[in-house]
């Protein structure tokens, strides 16, 4: 399991945060925080590629990933 910060530049409002939260919950992710101010998602996951694919699927592609 790794901890990551995902940069999601298309996130712009509280509705975006809700959509991203719902999508991550559908994947079974529990340890994450969606941060509108920095347009990032801080997440602890074993399935980074699945997370990135899901966010792209709902039109919030990940621009960059930083391991923390």
From TrEMBL:
Residues 2-63 form the HMA domain. Keywords: Metal-binding. The keyword Metal-binding applies. It comes from the Bacteria. It holds the Pfam family HMA. GO terms for molecular function: metal ion binding. InterPro entries: Heavy-metal-associated_CS (IPR017969), HMA_dom (IPR006121), HMA_dom_sf (IPR036163). This is Copper chaperone CopZ. It comes from Thermosipho japonicus. The lineage of its organism: Bacteria, Thermotogati, Thermotogota, Thermotogae, Thermotogales.
């Amino acid at each position: 399991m790794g901890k990551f910060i995902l940069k999601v530049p298309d996130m712009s409002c509280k509705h975006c945060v809700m959509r991203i939260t719902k999508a991550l919950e559908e994947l079974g992710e529990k340890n994450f925080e969606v941060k509108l101010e920095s347009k990032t998602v801080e997440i602890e996951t074993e399935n980074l590629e699945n997370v990135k694919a899901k966010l792209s699927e709902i039109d919030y592609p990940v621009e960059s990933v930083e391991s923390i």
